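Go through this chain for my students:
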Amino acid sequence: MKIVADSKIPYLKGLLEPVAQEVLYVPGAEIDSTVVREAQVLLTRTRTRCDRTLLEGSQVQLIGTATIGTDHIDLDYCRSRGIAVVNAPGCNAPAVAQWVHASILQWLERRKALGPVTLGVVGVGHVGSIVARWAQQLGYRVLLNDPPRAAVEGSAAFSTLEQLQQECDVITFHTPLTREGEWPTWHLCDEALLGGLCRCGLVLNAARGAVCDTRALLQWGGDLAIDCWEGEPAINRELLRKAFIATPHIAGYSLQGKQRGTAMIVEALNRRYGWSIKPTKASTPQHGADHVTAQSILESYNPLADTARLKTLPESFEHLRNSYPLRQECP
């Protein structure tokens, strides 16, 4: 068996060699149809577009992405070819929640904000659930918006976007990126949503870049915390200058998150091929710390340092992301 793996997937080298005839580690941007033609397994990150152009004529049986999202994979094409796709849902959720709350706390400190905070969480999956739980521990009032969950579970626990517009001081997005279906999220945060905000002073995007419309963000008068950008790595420089927090898509880049992501795809390989590879296990729980304080969050991570680096070297977005020193999750 031949395996092609993105060379930036950590904690992977040395695990697969005992069970594969060949393991080829290639930078994500260099994985092309020639590289994967004779591979049976392809292990990726978000920078490799897995579609007909890449896969047609190849022997690929399984794609494993060491990421939460799969929007870089043409799932319909893979289904038509019988190519299995596995991802790592929730692997870096505590790290993203850490980024969100560290950003909010830095913003509150800058504004010398006093009194209660109402936080709107759009998308209450792996990440949004941790964000909401920690927000409640910090004393925030929390409104949850998740139409797919509300349709299944009932609307009692959930709020509409209109309610978030009316009542929230801060809104954070944690949805997948979808363009079709009953609840598409492409440009969910658009001119209409931002224009209807009554008291919100901070919008955060650590979901996918295109969940927020760049032009609408530029026109809005409030503050922004952005980790995911439309068109990255060629990000909009005006939006970069405007953003209070601006990081190069590293919100989920914790040591433990990377350990989980790699472990989840390795365990998927074990199940499919009957292997017994033992990946590195994360030292913190996937549901995040059981209890946090403002002090523990701020001591664990400072997004202003990453913001300063990106604003100084915007042309180095991809380098800053690929060479990011993995941080520890909130204890």
User: Anything to note?
Assistant: The chain has two domains: 2-87, 93-252+295-322. The longest strand covers residues 2-6.
